[in-house]
Amino acid sequence: KKKKKSKSKKANDDNDEIEACEATNEILSAGLRIQEFLKKHRNEEEESAIIPHPVRVLMSSRFMSLLSDRVCAVGGGGSGGSSHQQTTGKSHSTLCILSDVTSGWDVLEKNGAVAFAKSTYKEEEEVSENNGHTLEQSKKLVKEIQIIAMDLALHSSDESNKADAKFQAKLRCATGCAALLSALSLQLLKCGKKIPDDDTSDNYDDDDDDNDDVDEEIHEATSDLVNITKDLLRIVDEGLSAVVSEGGDKDGSDEEDEENMPLATLADLCVTSLSGSLASCKLTREMVKVAWSGGLAVASAVAPASSNQDVDDTNYLVDKHVMEVLLSSVCDGKSMEEEGKEAEGDDADESDDEGIDGEEDDDGNIFSTANASELDLDESMDREEDGKNISRKKCEDKKENEDESDEELDPERLQNLLLEDSDADLSEGEDGQLEHHAGADKALAQLIKMKQDARKAGQNEREKVELSNRLRCLVLLETLFSYSNSLKGTLVPTDVMLMSLLPLLRSRRVLEKTVLSPPDEKKGHVLLSEKKALMEHLTSLLKNKICKTRATAMGSTNGQSIVDIAMEDVFCEARRSLSAAHCQCCSASLVLILKALPQPADAIKFDTVYQTAVQEWSTRQTTRLNVCLFDDLLTKLPSIGKALLVSPIAIAAKESPKTYLKSESFRLMSSIFSNASNSESEESYCIEALKSSTHDALTAIEQALKSGELLKAKRARDVLKASEHVVSFICRHGLLDLSLQKTMDSLLEQYKALSKSSPSAGVKQICAKLAEDVGSELEKKQVEVGKPKSALNPTTPKSSKKKKKSKKK
């Protein structure tokens, strides 16, 4: 057996050697083919052979694509350890890969390889010294941060550093920022330039300017990121005051404070990298996420560990400036502005419609008016004052179309239409009017129409790019709240968290409005898939990340005012909901707002807000409020929900005009009283609110059973369940008084009647049980008062007493 094993090992080794030899031969043969290709295409004016520009571009793009895939496939270094440790290991492995590439670049240059300059030709070899110095300076800056990250990684294996949260935060920040710096430096690798033709010299100059702008942007981003990394590392060692002392107060009294804070600057740099020209590289986009996670690691290391109400918000790195940068990259401009309140809700919706389709309607009116007047455009513009607006609009369109490519027209055909017949000559008639051919108006209308179509196509393309950038930047917000939810403490202050709700809700509603709108007959839905994707990501961000964040109770000084404003704004947004999904997002936001109250009992001040909401939901036919607003509140905050909803729900069960809404009200009533039998599990303010509403609840149940609207089995179950829980609550807390006793007597008769007449066996069983419970409770109450037993008691009928008297005689 040992001989067989040794032989198998030798065979495997031989196979490995054969495969290695074959791979080496393939590499050598490929190199020889490249050498022959270079000799064949050698440029006579150059001493060395140059690979053609299209081939270089293809090879470069393929290399960056493979490198991005390699980086994305890097794991966290094993399944053990926490998620943060695995992420740190992944960022370190990524940095090692990118460092090998950048160091290989330096090795090639040291061994005689010459990098392609901005121009590979003698006529344009003049490269300014400033650009060359900037390139070398960027390399030095990247190398400096790489050395810091590698040095921290060497000491990460020490036992003392493994348990040190601040050291781990420094390691993650340094490795993440170094990885992004390495990715940016790789974009400075150029493929040279293509020799311009005489016909393409203008485009060549434009491409040259674009490349210069990209290089300048990379150099600026590199310099800024190095300063940000140093500031973040210094914050971990010296505290937040080390940076605040240089830039002024952290309270935001100066406008320059936002630029001086490193995390806000990092957020701005990440947004620029994801939405600018640098976002074209997949590797850069991936490294932006890694660098942003490193900055959040520093923010979590310096954030207060406790959720005490007295903690100052200035101790957080994630402040309102950071949130403003992130929200402005995800939300549209209208959503970030302060809109009108509830009274302007409907008007705002109409204005949104005009804002989306207003320009298209104006364009359509121009051509419809021209067709109606047989294309006599000059006469209509002379007679109507709207001609000034049309001419002004044409001037604006002309400015917008300066950078866009015009539609190709047939010049001969237009010339024939415009100059056909002798009437096209510029001459004046007897009336002093310009005479021209009627076909010229049609040609002019067609020309304007084609230019307008080109402008709309450009608008659609810009909108597509904007949606793509917003979707990319949304990853930064998702990473922020995902990181915050994974921590024991709090990374985002509550007031900063609340300020993010309304812009995100507004943006989601605007997207949903365009998605749900009927498609145009001619062009259908424009960018429907992109808008749906962004809307779904916003929904997931609100429901699964932001609203599940651990919200800390705010102080009583300004916390209540912030909560009041947020509550009013979100309820106003809920009244403008276009679907149940949007109302669910508003409901989750309202629950988060209530969690931010200094004390749970302070929620009682919102009783009028919820009373108005329940009344609107149960009475108005055109309301957009959904029952999920109340279900979520009862599920996630039971005590607060019961205290706020018990009274308005009882009123809605009596006064709602629709049977379905009454049934829903009784279902909610059943949820309110279901778990309230044990007073120890509920707050005192909740128990008091339930006690004060028992009379209204019983009255609503009595009216429902008498009216007969809810006697069907499907509706009657909700009423009977609510009755069961309300009666149980009354019995356990001893609330049966004279006023309730009369209602209970009436209910007992209704239960008995339903137990005999209902066609449903389940309803009969429930009614029989309720009749027994109510009867026994009435009997106990009568015994306590000292009155004779009621004739309504089914256990002591009058006939039994007569039988006993006859036996004694």
Q: What can you tell me about this protein's structure?
A:
The structure is a single chain. The protein is mostly helical. It has a domain at 41-121 and 129-195 and 206-304 and 313-317. It has helices at residues 2-40, 53-72, 83-110, 129-154, 159-162, 165-186, 201-238, 241-247, 257-260, 262-275, 282-302, 320-330, 333-336, 345-372, 377-383, 386-400, 411-418, 439-485, 494-499, 501-516, 528-546, 559-574, 580-595, 607-619, 628-636, 638-655, 659-674, 684-692, 694-707, 713-733, 738-757, 761-785, 798-808. It is elongated, with a radius of gyration of 38 Å. The chain starts with a helix and ends with a helix.
**Globular, elongated, flat, extended or rod-shaped: what is the shape?**
elongated
The count of strands amounts to 0
The end-to-end span amounts to 110 Å
Q: Which stretches of 5+ consecutive residues score pLDDT under 50? A: 77-81, 118-133, 248-254, 339-396, 398-408, 421-429, 789-809
Percent of residues in helices: over 70%
Summarize model confidence as the mean pLDDT. Answer: 75
Give the strand content.
under 5%
What structural category characterises the helix and strand content?
mainly alpha
Give the biggest beta sheet. Answer: none
DSSP helical segment count: 33
Gyration radius over CA: 38 Å
Subcellular location: Nucleus
InterPro entries: DNA_pol_V/MYBBP1A
Biased composition (Basic residues): 799-809
Biased composition (Acidic residues): 339-364, 375-384
Explain the layout of strands and helices.
Layout: H1 2-40, H2 53-72, H3 83-110, H4 129-154, H5 159-162, H6 165-186, H7 201-238, H8 241-247, H9 257-260, H10 262-275, H11 282-302, H12 320-330, H13 333-336, H14 345-372, H15 377-383, H16 386-400, H17 411-418, H18 439-485, H19 494-499, H20 501-516, H21 528-546, H22 559-574, H23 580-595, H24 607-619, H25 628-636, H26 638-655, H27 659-674, H28 684-692, H29 694-707, H30 713-733, H31 738-757, H32 761-785, H33 798-808
Helix pairs in contact: 3-6, 4-6, 4-7, 6-7, 6-11, 7-10, 7-11, 10-11, 10-12, 10-18, 11-18, 12-18, 15-16, 18-21, 20-21, 20-22, 20-23, 21-23, 22-23, 23-25, 24-26, 25-26, 26-27, 26-28, 26-29, 27-30, 29-30, 29-31, 30-32, 31-32
Subcellular location: Nucleus
Region (Disordered): 330-412, 778-809
Biased composition (Basic residues): 799-809
